[in-house]
Amino acid sequence: MAAAPPQGCSPVHWATSPFYSPVDSEAIFAPVEPEAPAAARGGPCLRYVTLDRVHLDAFATNSPDPAAYSCSRPADGQSIDALISHSWQDQPQAKWQALQRWRRAFVAQHGREPRVFIDKYCLRQSQISSELRHLAFYASQCDSIVALVGGSFPKRLWCVIELDLFLSRPEARCTLLHLVPSAARRFDVREAQCACDVDKERLLGLVLQRTGSYDAFNRRILSALQGAHERSVSMHVAR
Asked: Which residues on adjacent β-strands are paired with residue 115?
């Protein structure tokens, strides 16, 4: 029997999207030691999917799709080129077209399909609560993030959390593909939404602990969004 959603969470979103028990939410920002074996981190199964096996329908609905998971494969030591971040509320066709443009550029440069991490393909939807405890680990194993920044992207707390996991790395590569011009004009993490109110409260508290103030977090995210926008969709962060 599936676990009941925590109080304040939508039962539909609890079962079909990356929102999980507040008991696990602190693990999102847990430090990851690159040299530590996977077993020491609770044994997450890192997987990837090549973009030639990804379909438009995957961006249209967050309903679980067992067939999507079967398209991915264990990383087994192979590098993962990018984590794909997007909001379910943004227009599927626009996200798909932007991702395909990035894919074509990648193939032209590297002569192969990109290996990517997409939650719908690479996480066991039946065990989403335990899987997403390892989000920081999964992100740390990806060389970059490709964010499909539509109008709702800055308004979704999980989207900006994923982006910040890369912005805070010493040498991170971020590619932001803007679907609408207005997406990067303003940002306030306190206005970002979660399907689960309990998660939002806990995650905002963790953001505050991590950066010292909401304004500091806002500046970092907005600077990334605006900086990438001014550079015609791509930004490489190196500190």
From this structure: 50
**Whether 88 contacts 13, CB under 8 Å:** no
The two three-digit tokens of residue 142, written as one number: 């990806």
How many angstroms from the chain centroid is the CA of residue 32? 17
In angstroms, the first-to-last Cα distance of the chain is: 47
Q: Residue 44: pLDDT band by 50, 70, 90 thresholds? A: low
> How far apart, in whole angstroms, are the C-alpha atoms of residue 41 and residue 227?
34
Digit-coded pLDDT (tens) for 136-147? 889 989 999 999
CA dihedral 152, 215, 136, 36 (to 10 degrees): 160
Q: Give me the pLDDT at residue 197, please.
A: 86
Quote the Cα angle for 143-145-147, to 5°. Answer: 165
Residues 6+ apart with CB under 8 A from 130: 24
User: Of 19, 4, 45, whose CA–CA distance to 128 is shortest?
Assistant: 19
What are the C-alpha distances in Å from 60 to residues 26, 106, 119, 126? Answer: 29, 23, 14, 19
Tell me the angle at which helices 197-211 and 157-167 cross, rounded to the nearest 10 degrees: 30
